[in-house]
Amino acid sequence: MNTSKVINHIVNWLKSYSIKSKTNGFVVGISGGIDSAVTSTLACMTGLPTLCIQMPIYQSKNELLRSGKHIKWLNKFKNFEEEYIDLTKTFESFSKSVSKNHKNDNLLSLANSRSRLRMTTLYYYATLNNYLVVGTGNKVEDFGVGFYTKYGDGGVDLSPIADLMKSQVRSIAKELNIIDEIIKAKPTDGLWDDTRSDEDQIGATYDELEKAMELKNKKISLSNTGGILLDKKFILDQTRPGIGIYGYDANGKNITLNKKNLNFPAKLKVPILQIRYGKK
User: Fold this and answer.
1) Tell me: the pLDDT tens digits for 199-249?
2) Contact between residue 3 and residue 171 where contact means Cβ atoms under 8 Å apart
3) Residue 199: exposed, middle, or buried by beta-carbon count in 10 A (0-12, 13-18, 19+)?
4) Contacts of 80 (CB under 8 A, 6+ apart)
């Protein structure tokens, strides 16, 4: 990836989008994480008014410190605007109103409600200023495993980093000189009262998820070798000679019979979420 070219492309795209939509600028939620740090910086680089809002709800001390440091770091942009809105009491009031009869099984509902309260706040200010709400989801979350809240952090006008893998977001963050503490922080959605990370909830690391998404466009062939051919490497069993009954040989090449390629009768119908390598 040519990082500087990608940065310029996104910045120009954001600016062009706002001009064509006849809006005045952008509003971005700041969480203290790398995705919102990169997104808000790219928005500020357009030169258009960019309102960055901190919206804590029982937020951890570390998350608050990181988001505060990023807000100060953004002050170098003349078009930068900021707001700090503590939504804790709003969330408490909402929680008391809806959770009287189901306090033991509503934790996920309340977690998602935090995200939706923030979305409502962002759109309040967006409408007030004729701004666009800028999403902070990356490709792994938004288009890989669907790790976002519907009508919460998924409720946005445009998503400038939604075509970037998490590793690519890190590369851009380094190029932009984002605070190192933010780059190295464990990704978290900030919707829970404990310290669980995104990877804890998903059950896989971002690196594992990226590998799975990359394999989606690669040939995975099964043969009667007693093993599984994964990215040109056999796993789970030793190979042995024989014709590949699923149309590919041990080298991933089509097998022909009477000058015709054998058909591959099996197709994966669901995304690969995890890959575990077995011993040979």
Assistant:
1) 677 777 777 777 777 765 554 444 443 444 444 444 433 333 334 444 555
2) yes
3) middle
4) 44, 50, 52, 74
Angstrom CA distances, 257 to 90, 243, 248, stand at 69, 10, 12
Euclidean distance between CA atoms 164 and 140, whole angstroms: 8
- Residue 266, exposed/middle/buried by CB under 10 A (0-12, 13-18, 19+)? exposed
Measured distance CA(53)–CA(138) in Å, rounded: 19
Residue type at 119 in one-letter notation: M
Question: Do the Cβ atoms of 18 and 133 come closer than 8 Å?
Answer: no
Among 224, 209, 230, 220, residue whose Cα is nearest residue 274: 209
Alpha-helical runs (H) found in 84-130: 88-98, 107-129
Residues of the chain with pLDDT under 70: 100-104, 189-192, 194-195, 199, 215-280
Q: Residue 205's closest CA among 255, 275, 135?
A: 275
